[in-house]
Amino acid sequence: MTFRPGVRVGVDVGRARVGVALSDHHGMLATPVRTVARSDEAVAEVAALAREAEAVEVVVGHPLSLSGAATASTDDAVAFATALGELTGLPIRLVDERLSTVTAERSLRQTGRDSRSQRPVIDQVAATIILQTALDAERASGNPPGMLIVPDEGS
Q: How far is CA 142 from CA 2, 25, 145, in A?
């Protein structure tokens, strides 16, 4: 199994907010970092976080329906991921994120937090779950997770 060193950024793309998480340099642990308001500047803000962290890759949640079909949210996340790749020049991996937000909400409830008042935290936790799942899958299989989006060289 080959170790790919470097910090990865985890991203949970939502219509109102974008949750962001970072891994350690060894790809062992994902931690929540920030929630970015969804605006025209959201891609640039996430790109700035990736640059600041000297990230080597970005893992974006790929929201499919439970049946595995694409939805409007899927198209939105892919567009966000593509724009992020073009802006950063980093490889972007789309990773199945089904139930990550549900898992994040459940985790917060179990700690006694009201999920409605914690929406920005939920987005960070969802990004952390997406990234940790990808890191664990790579360690278990020895292969990079998800589907790679190659940055457009012409951008």
A: 6, 17, 9
Entry pTM = 0.86
**Residues 86-132: tens digit of each pLDDT:** 999 999 999 987 655 556 566 656 666 555 566 778 889 889 999 99
Q: What gap in Å lies between CA 145 and CA 155, rounded to an integer?
A: 25
Burial of 4-20, coded b for 16+ CB within 10 Å and e otherwise, reads eeebbbbbbbbeebbbb
CA distance 99 to 65: 10
Q: What angle do CA 122, 126, 130 make, to 5 degrees?
A: 175
Q: Where do the domains of the chain lie, and which CATH numbers do they carry? A: 8-149 (3.30.420.140)
d(CA 118, CA 140): 32
Q: Which long-range contacts (CB under 8 A, 24 or more apart) does 80-85 make?
A: 80/11, 80/13, 80/18, 80/42, 80/43, 81/11, 81/13, 81/149, 82/149, 83/43, 84/11, 84/43, 84/46, 84/47, 84/50, 84/58, 84/60, 85/58, 85/149, 85/150, 85/151, 85/152
Question: What values do phi and psi take at 13, rounded to 5?
Answer: -90, 125
